[in-house]
Amino acid sequence: MPLQPGALGKALREDLTLHSSLCRREAGAFQRAIQGSGEVVVACTQEKRLFAEIGERTDGAVAPVRFVNIRETGGWSRDAGKAMPKIAALLAAAHLPDPDPVPTVTYRSAGRLLVIGPMEDAERAAALVADVLDVTVFTQGGAGAQERRHPVLGGRIAALRGWLGAFELQWTAGNPIDLDLCTRCNACVAACPESAIGLDYQIDAALCTGHRQCVKVCTVAGAVDFGREAQTLTERFDLVLDLRPAPAFLQHARPQGYFHVPGANWAEAALPTVLKLRELVGEFEKPKFFAYKPKLCAHSRNEKAGCNACVEVCSAEAITSDASRQQVKVNANLCVGCGACTTVCPTGAISYAYPTAAAQGLKIRMLLSTYLQAGGKAPVLLLHSQERGQALVEEVGRAAQLGVAQGVPANVIPMAVWHTASLGVDVWLSAVAMGASQVAVLTTGEEAPQYLDALREQMDVAEAVLGGLGYDGRHCTLLQARTLGDLDQELQLLVRQRPAAPERPAQFSLAPEKRATLELALDRLVEYAPLRPAVVPMPAHGSPFGSVQVNKDRCTLCLSCVSACPASALQDNAALPQLRFIEKNCVQCGLCARTCPEQAITLEPRLLLARERREARVLNEAQPYACVRCGKPFGTLKAIEAMLARLGGHPMFQGAAAERLKMCGDCRVIDIYCAPDEVKITDV
Prior knowledge:
alpha/beta
């Protein structure tokens, strides 16, 4: 690698020593460094295991050690000589502390494995794990071994639900042969004239014509009984291996502890599947990736459905609608931490907790600010997953070193994230405000289809904002690459673009609340925007910004929309019959439009840049209606007139009763009590 320790040290404000064989003949330098109290950063990841062994054998090694890859990400590239600003940025980011710990989700597995499939396949799989797992087979036909090695269940599966350590199988046992009583003597198989009994010891009702020879030959064991009623049974398991052609779980991200390997693919998938199964005994933990604030949720109000984005995008089906509480419910055991729900949530009710937005923002700011201070130009932030995405980036670097690829360009700064769907428009716009000319999100084909749709929708929003402000070019790009050749080509096409960016990079920190981060990014982008239109049109779908339009001829100022608004965008006025609106707060969830009994509200996706965006403006107001008895205002003239018109023909609201509709609540009670023709409880 062509490295310039002087330039890198100047950018990082420290003296750097260049090592060419730190993991071998210069290992003494590493040992001396880790004997100190300061943090040690090793700019190589290839020999992490060896460095760990050296650390264990070094007396007084107390310094924390971090590793960062500057080779495949920059040093092995056709333009590696220009990559010093990027390498400096990667080294600076490596000094950042680990994310704060968060609550964990615990799984407990005692090793009870359910294998579903044809008997021969299920027993073959069971034999590979039976020494460490307690195996139960659920037969799906086929021929089993003569020796009964494992408990066998049979029947029709009604439901399979759950996760690692808590799977629940529900099935109907309606076959005449009781598999617990069956001794596998094969007498029934031999006696059946229709060959309706297979070596899975289940009777095919379509072939059986009722000779009942099987019953006669099974009198000792009593396993065959055609009069037995079908039973619905339930049993719990810790792990499930499903060998059927179609899986029990159809979602993209299946529950942890569930493995689906069709029998046709067993030969190639057997080894990795068996190794994973054998390891899943004991207690396991994972971070609780999300935080949920029900008060901000725009999912439901007044039994009306509003935003459903998180439910629709979740590939693990971990998010469901809780109608009784009028909010969503997130199953932490099913959540895989993709963060797509946080990306599409317009209010920030669901936020990514590990790492937090603030931690991600700090890393992005460190990468971009160090890169720019070191003399870099037009930085491109490449967001990729820390598994397949990281591997693909490293493959491109290795190919460049061998001369068969261009490598990662000098101005492309890779940043690994848990999942590429976990960051959305708030982070992307913040990155542009901090100096990034582009934000590229790398997908590798493993992502759920709805994730790609959600990312494109969010990118359309970001492009609408930036384009409306006059920042030329495309700033957000979705890269889809499955091979190193695909990624290498996409990166070269990407860096040919030079979109406009703010004149002065921002240095703000990302706020814990998504809307607050959006406001910070917008303020900075507007400050240096080439254009400042009054209104920026937004896409019809997915926009977190917008206004509401009220049809004043229909609106009766019932204010049901105010109680439905989760973001306090719609407000009333305690002193006057008014409907007021603060556009900055509106998330375009549509709850107000669905709640309005007069269907007087429509949504208008847009970004208002005028000062009025933060101020309350009156959408509708009406003349107050005064009580005909005491003169106190208690409603609007239009609402009372509409009520009188609707109830005028009802027999219960005639004469004095109709007049009471024009009174406030207190006066109605007084008038009823004082009326001489009203029947009182004391008269009954």
